[in-house]
Amino acid sequence: MLRAVSHNSSPSRPSALGPHRPSAWGVVLVTSLALACASTTPVAPDSGSAGSAGRDVEEPVTQDSTSSPTEASQRSESGESVFSSTADEGADSDAAASGSSDGVVEDLGTNPNPKDDDSAQAQNKPGESALARRAESAVEGVIIGTVVGGQIAGGYGAAVGAALFGLYGLVTGDVPFDSGQSKSKTGSGVDADEALEAEIEEELQKQSALEDEIEAELKRQEELLKQIDQQEELNAEITKEKERRVALEQADPTSAPPVPYVREIPESIFDSESREVGGESKIVKSLDADRDGRPEMEKIYDDASGRLDRIAQDTNYDGQMDTQFEYDERGQITSTIEDTDHDGTPDRWASFENGVGTRVEVDRDNDGVRDGFQVYEGNSIAYEEYDDDGDGVINRRVEYANRARAVEKEDRDADGSIDFWTYFESGGRPVRIEKDTKQDGKPDVWEYYEGTDPGSMLIVRKEEDLNGDGEVDVTSYYENGRLSRKEIQNAEALNQSKQQP
Q1: Angle at which helices 69-77 and 82-97 cross, to 10°
Q2: pLDDT in tens, 353-364
Q3: Distances (CA, A) of 477 to 425, 435, 447, 458, 484
Q4: Is residue 324 part of a domain?
Q5: How far apart are CA 479 and CA 491, in angstroms?
Q6: How far apart are CA 166 and CA 156, in angstroms?
Q7: Number of domains present in the structure of the chain
């Protein structure tokens, strides 16, 4: 019986296991058993090597049953096993009994039916695999037992753990503390690989679908951002238009109106089509920013020359074009047509030359007839004319000097002739009024006013030509707007005027 001899001169500590202390020989014993079991697994012949069927096989040496003990002893001394000789003799006897008439021993290394060898190998594989697995488990058990036992009880614990865990692995074929995943993988490795590949393929398909969704969402976001940019540009242009209108309202009304501001919008966002306009072929570019089917702007070009003819706008987004700009061959605005009250009927017309307004016409009572006219000269207003009674005839004219109202002429009896003149000074104060009471086209009454408020001027003097000779016949004086006295320059003319009905 083998025993471990300790070379350590120091006395050994008493063991909890009793007087027989476990030693490293136990580890060596278990490891040797495991390796021996692993070594018993036969190695399959290499099917890929050429000429395996014709490989020379060592023929078993036949031994006569009458071999002497001396020969057996010689074989023993030469390293041959007696049991091997006996096995060989048995094989020779079986070969002879099989009916070999020529006495030649059949080659045991060849098999006339290779399929039988494959079947035999297939039948032996499960056992071989189990035996090899037990050996591997025993080795792994020894390693695990050594580590675990060493951590608990030092060297003795390592020896005991190695022995116990190694035997456990050798008997059961399982590795201590193993989850069993390796075994299941060995039994169903192909199925696990196929399941893993299927899972990977499914994940790839999901990822591809997700990428498609992300790409579609990015395109939608891009379109949305484009629409937002277009709307922001449009809002900016609308703001500029409103500011321009406010500036015009606050500006001097006697100044010539500037060329209207037209919103600069990229051509790329317009929809283009060919259309017959006024019997002529035109290219119409429309902008429908809110996509309600009612364009907010239309640009009309000549189909032949490509020249811009006019632009129409819907400034209040009610679906009706209320502003139109006409262009000349130089691309400058020459006239505009506007529906300022958005009733569907134009009520303001303006003409321009070299970027400055020259004439403005308005329909003040919305009857479709122009009844107000403003004419500008030298960047300022020259005069205004109005049809106050709507008969289509001008009956009032206001003339300006240095952008200030100088005189207002009226036809108050609607006979087509001016019979009332009002003269103004600085600040728009009416200081003199002239009247034609005889309807001869010449003034015969002159009234003079004083005051600081144009709306509350008071008469201070009135002069009258009673006989129409152009000379003043009677002068009346007023205080605080009331007659205080009269002076008669021509009594005869006064008497004649009294006698006339």
Answers
A1: 120
A2: 988 999 999 999
A3: 21, 18, 10, 12, 6
A4: yes
A5: 24
A6: 15
A7: 2
